[in-house]
Amino acid sequence: MVSSRVIRNLKKEFRQSGLAKLGLALVVLILLTAVFAPFIAPHNPTDQQLDQSELPPIGFSETSERTSSQMVDGEIQTVTEEVEVTADPDHVFGTDGLGRDMFSRVVYGARTSLVVGVLGTVLAASIGVPVGLLAGYHRGRVDDALMRIADVSLAFPSLVLAVALIGLWGRAAVNVPDPFVVAGLAPEMPESFVLPITVVIVVGLVNWVWFARVARGEALSLRGQEYVKASRALGADDNTIILRHVLPNAITPIIVLGTVQVAAIILLESSLSFLGFSGTTLSWGFDIAQGRDYVSSGQWWIASIPGLAIMLSVIGINLLGDWLRDALDPGIEGEGGAA
Amino acid sequence: MSLGRFALKRSLQGIGVVWGVVTVVFALRFVTPGSPINAVAPLDASQETRQAIAAELGLDQPLYIQYGQYIFDLLQGDMGRSYIRGQEVTTLVFERLPATVELAIAASVVAIVLAIPLGVISATNRNDPVDYGATLLSLGGISTPNFWLGIMLILIFAVEFNIFNTSGRGVDVGDVALSVANAEPFVGTLLTWLAYITLPAIALGTYFMALITRLTRSGMLDELSKGYVQAARAKGLPRTLIRYKHALRNTLIPVITVLGLQLGTLIGGAVITEAVFSWPGLGTLVIESINNRDWPALQGSLIIIGTSFVLVNILVDVVYAYLDPEVVND
To answer: Transmembrane stretches, by residue range (chain A) (predicted)?
Structure first.
C-alpha cells in the first residue's frame, strides 16, 4: 500500500530527476487544457470559416504560386499568380482546410485523448486486475484457463482487434453536456463533448490482458507470504484475503502499468481516429488524417501540429511512468507499453 | 528436458492457441449485428434470394455444423471465397502476407541494428551527453505515433527533397535477390527497392528502436553492477570482453522476451504504416475487408496474423531457452 516509505522514495526520485519534473509539468498542462478547454480555445473548434481556410501558423506567412484556369475569349487559359498567404494573429496555429482554428482543435483534442486514455485504462484494469488476482491466488484450473485466454488475446494485435471490433460494431458516441457551456460561461463553444463510447469499450477490452498478467504475477508471489498464511490460519475467506492483503500489496506495479497504459491507449485512440474508426471528429488522430491530404500541397501544419500534441502528451505520461517505476521499482520493465 | 522436447511442448501449446484464435475469429461474426447476407445480397433482394444466398454460404446450418465445417475446411487450407473479390481467401492472404513480412523484417532490422549499440553506449557512458541524447531520442521514439512519423517523413523526404517514393511497394525483395543470383546488374533494382521501403521501415521501426534502446540500457546498467562483472574485472579480463560477451548476453535475454510480447504491436503498427504508405500488405486487406463486411477475407487475415504471432513467439521461446537453459526446466 502507499506507505510513508513509498512517498519518501517518490519525493527523493522527483527531486533528483529533471525528467520527472518535466513529465509532471506536461501532464498537469494537458490536464488543465482538457478540463478548461472552453476557456482556453479562442474559437469554436468546429466552426468552419471557408474564407479563412489554410492559413499558416504565425511566423510562417509566405507567398506561393497558385494556378487556376480561366475562360478568356472562349479559350481556357491557365493563369499562374503569386498569392500572399499571411498568417492571422487570430489563428496562432493557423487554420485547416475548412477554416477551423487549429489551436482550438488541438485544445479540444486533449479532451478526447485524455478521457479515452483514462476511461479505457480504468476499464481494462477493472477487468484485468480481478481476473489476474483470482487466477494467481487460486492457481489450478482457473489460472490455466486464464493463461490460455491471455495467450489467445495476445495473438491479436490491439490495433487490429480494435479496428475489427469498432468496424463491425459501429462507431457509437455519447454527447456529454459541457458544464461550463451549460452554465453559460463560454457560450461560443460546443455544447457537448462527444465521448466515443465504442472506442472506450474496445480499447478497454483489447488491453485488459496486460493488467491480468501483472496482477496474476503479483498474486502468485504474494500467496505464499507469511501474512497471507496467517490470515488464512485465522479463518479469513479467500475473497477477504485477496481484497485486504493481496490487492494492497500488488497495487504498485498495477499503478505503474496503468500510467504506461494511459499513454499506450492515447496512441491507440489516435491510430483509430486516423484510420477513421472513431466516434468523434474532434480528435488529434482525425485531424492528422485530414491534414494528410494537404501535405503534398504545402499546408504542412494541418497534419504536423496535432501530432506534436500527441507526442508531448505521451512523452509527459511516459516520463511520469518512468518516475513511478524508478521510485517504486515494481519489476515489470517493458510490460504492456505499446499500442 | 532437452531443447527438442521443449520446442515440441511449446509447439503443442501453440496449436492450442491457434485453435483459440480460430474460434474467436469464427465467433466474431455472431457477436456482430447484421447478417453477412447483407454484404452479399442486393438491397432489394427477395426473401427467396436471401435464403438461396444463405444456403449457398452455409449460413442456414446450425452453428456447430458451421463451426465444424469451418475448421474442416481450414485444415485443408480452404478459407472460403472473398465476398467482394470472389477470389480464394487463401490465395488472397498469401499474396499479401509477403509484403507485410518484408516490411516488418525491414523495420526490425533497422530497429535492432541501431538500438543495441545505442543502448550499450548509453549504459557504458552513463550521464554523459551521449547518454542523455540516447535517452531523449528513445523517449521521443516510444511516444511518437508511427502514422504521424510516416507523414512527417513523407513531408520532409518526399515532398521537400523528393528522394523517396511514398506510395506502394515498387519491387519486392525477391526481385532484388533474383537479380543478384543471376549476376545481373542489380544496383538499379536495389535502389528502387530502397526508394520504396526506407520510409515505411523507419516509420514502423522507430518505436521498436526506442523500446529496445531503453531495455538494453537499463538491462546493461543492471548487469554491469553485478558481482560477476567485478569478479571478471578483478581477474583481469579486458573491459570490452566483459561488456560485450558477458553483460550484453545476459541483457539480451529479457530484451528478447519483451520483443516477443510486443510482436503484436509490430504487426498492428504495420497495419497503420501500410495505410499511410499504401503498402499492399495484410493490413490494407484487413481494413478493406472490415469496410466491405467481407467476412471470409477478414477472418482469413485475422487467422494468419494470429498464427504468425504464435509461430514467432514459439521461435522466440526456443531462442530464449537456448540462451538461458534454465527456462527449459521451469
So the answer is: 21-41, 114-137, 149-172, 192-211, 254-278, 298-320
